[in-house]
Amino acid sequence: MPALCPGRAADSYVFYRYDLSLPAAIIFAVLFGISSGLHIWQTWRKRSWFMTAFIIGGLMECIGYIGRILSWTDHCALSHYIMQTLLLLLGPALFAASIYMILGRIILLTEGEKFSLIRRTWLTKIFVGGDVLCFIMQGAGGGILSSAKADPKKKDLGEYLIVGGLFVQLTFFGFFVIAAGVFQFRGRDHLRALPREITWKKHLNVLYLTSIFILIRSIFRVIEYLQGNDGYLLSKEVFLYVFDAVLMLAVMVAMNVVHPGDIAIMLKGKRDNFVELESPPGTKSQPADPNVSV
Length: 294
Description:
By secondary structure, the protein is mainly alpha-helical. It has helices at about 20-45, 50-75, 80-110, 120-145, 150-185, 190, 200-225, 235-255, 260-280.
């Protein structure tokens, strides 16, 4: 365990209770950076601007691990600690926001709103609203905790807010997975009858997979903060990489492989075909916006 920082009391808040791994921080900073760069290119090429929050989350992960690299050079620097703590804590909330929007577009693409537990127009609003609440609570808690120093009241308040925000995330995400499952179960006959070129199933399967990864990561974070700064999970760096870094990178890579921008392309194709069929002869059809609000 690293020595206490100069001038800091023995009972003060300890930033790291282990020796930081420089190679691990570099590897994940690079991998998150590569995946984020690929997402930027894919989103621009497919005009899937609803993935913007996802990209920001990936960049936050990348910069967060750069913060851990900087902390390796000086583990006593508060700015480096705040940088990595907040960004790694908040990045997945932005992943969640994009995942919520993806389900709305799958429902729109398959014309399956009647099978949804929640109206499509409300689905994204409800879940993204919960995600914003989670983001604010975790951000406030992380900020308070990062500046707590030796103040036990501030430390407890910060941890309570973070845990509360994580519980909000778990609640909304759990209900979201149920809503997606209900949609698929109710609409199973309708979905099977769709044309083969409407590849809804692979996108829904990736949505389930990434949701499970985020749920596991959130459960890990809840346990981590419930144990406290001197708990077992926060005293071993390997847990951060196994239950956070690897899982969140897997979320990003899965979305690289099966990019939701394909849904936007399919939606645009359906709308263009509809306009061509419905427009009077000689009229010029207007391009459809694949990023219509859901």
